[in-house]
Amino acid sequence: GEIRAAFAHSITKNVTFGYNLGGSWDIDKQKINYLYSFSLNTALMESMDAFIELDGRAASRGFGEPWLALGGGLKYSLRPYLQLDLSGGHGLSKNAPDTFFGFGLTFQLP
Asked: pTM for the complete prediction?
């Protein structure tokens, strides 16, 4: 399993700095893999945001290989409770994915 704590701080009215810190536990190896990310988010329009993110993994006691990736994307609010996401990026270290893309639809339950 994986657990993360997410934080966000407003820099200006339209720019936010965000970061996540967390870890995942490997039951078989009894080791932790630390997770982190840092992002800058900006409002392009009332219903559209853009972001750039640095995402990484740091190994604990020989568990896995550390890696680092840089990505970015767009978030579009279709409704106050419905969001469309498009993202992509590129690995910056040997063990990170070479290139990645993502697409998502997020909704908030009442």
From this structure: 0.78
